[in-house]
Amino acid sequence: MPRIKTLRTKKPPEGFAEIEDTLLDFANRLRDIESTSHEGKRKNESLWPVFQITHQRSRYIYDLFYTREAISSELYQWLLKQGYADGNLIAKWKKQGYEKLCCLRCIQAKENTFNATCICRVPKSKLDKDKVVECVTCGCRGCASSD
């Protein structure tokens, strides 16, 4: 979540006004998800949309800085510091084999059964064609880079 704005918060760097509408849209979508009912859903399943939107917001900032080079380094660092994007997840995206990673919990061995990575990290070619695979943690249907 982005930090709460206080009087001590510095003004955002140049270029923030151009992407502010999109970031506000992500914040509004998160707020809508928090207010929806979670009845009839599993405990983890109610958090899946939150994971997906934070992933989309981080990917948006990553693409702006690394792919399209549309924002400055100063603005990128400010966005990371303010909590608009997950810096650790972006650091993984820069490594080979993790380009499509959905969340950091999927690669933490201690979080999963048998101390292995999540099922969504297994390439789809090595899984049954008929079986639908969903990550228990974030609802991802496959984030292996070889898919």
Automatic annotation (TrEMBL):
Family annotation (InterPro entries): BUD31
Keywords: Nucleus
Keyword Nucleus on entry: yes
Subcellular location: Nucleus
Any one Gene Ontology BP term: mRNA splicing, via spliceosome
UniProt similarity note: Belongs to the BUD31 (G10) family.
Protein name in the entry: G10 protein
